[in-house]
Design goal:
The protein is mainly α. It has helices at residues 2-21, 26-35, 40-65, 70-90, 96-116, 131-150, 155-165, 171-198, 205-226, 228-251. It is built from 10 helices and no strands.
């Protein structure tokens, strides 16, 4: 019971922050699963499954607000899902330390870039949404999908910043796409692929699902109410903390 209460509290905080920042739930949720005794592959698969509920909670809020465009949603899914499946297979062949170090550098760079660009993502300016530039953007989404299927933390943050930087979304709308499409569909696909290889620790799944769904709903609500500046600041804090934690994990 004590383990379940601790897991619920940590997961609720992690997923609320993730729903505000557009990723990063693994910053807290995956380490607590490891701390409570799960082997890394099982903890990763269990975390991925719980992240699906984060997408469900955010979906309920964002669908009611009408923030998602069906055409662009289909592009994100078509580009990313094949990469997720590929990444779930590649994780078995990538040395953990190198993978974590690369992800730490990239994630920290996202936060620094956002901090160094004060106006980035505060207003939406649509761009690169047709022709070869759209295909280039979709190719990068595929590569992020590979990372999502193979690594643990921060790949949702990559999607959020790419939607802001390349496609011209404001942070609030970019986070909505990330939470719904990455949280629900990419992570669901990755959880299924990893579960077939490593298994899932089912006794803790109900606690994680409730905390993730509630955190996703609360974070999405506050993002819609408070606006882009709060979302941008949360994105920067979560990316930097995620990057630091990955550096520590890579050299532990």
């Amino acid at each position: 019971m004590l383990d379940s209460l601790l897991l619920f509290a940590v997961s609720l905080v992690a997923n609320t922050l993730s729903a505000l920042a557009g990723g990063g739930a693994g910053l807290l949720q995956l380490p607590i699963l490891l701390f409570l005794g799960l082997a890394f592959p099982v903890a990763l698969a269990t975390h991925k499954l719980a992240s699906v509920a984060l997408g469900v909670g955010a979906t309920l809020k964002h669908l009611r607000s009408g923030t998602l465009d069906l055409r662009f949603s289909a592009i994100i899914l078509a580009a990313g899902l094949p990469g997720v499946l590929l990444g779930a297979r590649l994780i078995l062949h990538i040395p953990d330390q190198w993978a974590l170090l690369a992800l730490a550098i990239l994630t920290t760079g996202l936060g620094i870039h956002s901090l160094a660009t004060p106006q980035l993502g505060l207003q939406g300016i649509p761009r690169n949404r047709s022709g070869c530039r759209l295909w280039l953007g979709a190719t990068v989404l595929f590569l992020i999908g590979v990372l999502n299927g193979s690594l643990t933390s921060g790949t949702g943050l990559f999607v959020t910043l790419w939607l802001v930087y390349w496609f011209g979304f404001e942070y609030k709308r970019a986070v909505a796409y990330t939470l719904v499409l990455v949280g629900l569909f990419w992570n669901g696909t990755g959880a299924l692929a990893l579960a077939m290889q490593a298994g899932i620790y089912w006794p803790w799944v109900p606690v994680l699902l409730v905390a993730s769904a509630l955190g996703g709903y609360l974070g999405a609500h506050w993002a819609l109410v408070k606006g882009n500046l709060l979302v941008k600041r949360c994105f920067e804090v979560v990316t930097l903390l995620t990057g630091i934690s990955l550096f520590i994990k890579a050299f532990w």
